[in-house]
Amino acid sequence: MKKKKKFENSEWKMSIMALFIFIGGSIGSQIVYYPDLPNLPSILGYLTGALVMVAGNVVYVIYKRKKRNGAGNEN
Predict the structure, then answer these.
(1) By residue range, what is the domain housing residue 18?
(2) 5 lies in a domain?
(3) CA angle 46, 48, 51 (to 5 degrees)
(4) In a domain, 55, yes or no
């Protein structure tokens, strides 16, 4: 039986957290600013922050995988 990869050990943990931060921030800003239209500056701010976190995590994961595979190929 395969062992499931836990969230604590996942290399995509930062990206998953960024998604939850974006969703929570968007909902939270709609609760605090209760207009008829969505508060776009705060939503775009949360989206920008989440995208930066995801991009940074992608770079980290690619670097980590190349480093791990490169070290194994040299032997």
Answers:
(1) 14-74
(2) no
(3) 105
(4) yes
Report the candidate in 41, 59, 46 with the shortest Cα–Cα distance to residue 19. Answer: 46
Phi, psi of 59, rounded to the nearest 5 degrees: -60, -45
Q: What is the pLDDT of residues 17-75, one digit of tens each?
A: 999 999 999 888 888 887 777 788 888 999 999 999 999 999 999 999 898 887 655 54
Domain presence at residue 19: yes
Encoded amino acid at 73, one letter: N
Look at residue 9 and tell me if it is in a domain. no
What six digits make up the tokens of 8?
């604590």
Domain count, the chain: 1
pLDDT score of 38: 77
DSSP designation for 7: G
For residue 75, what pLDDT is reported? 45
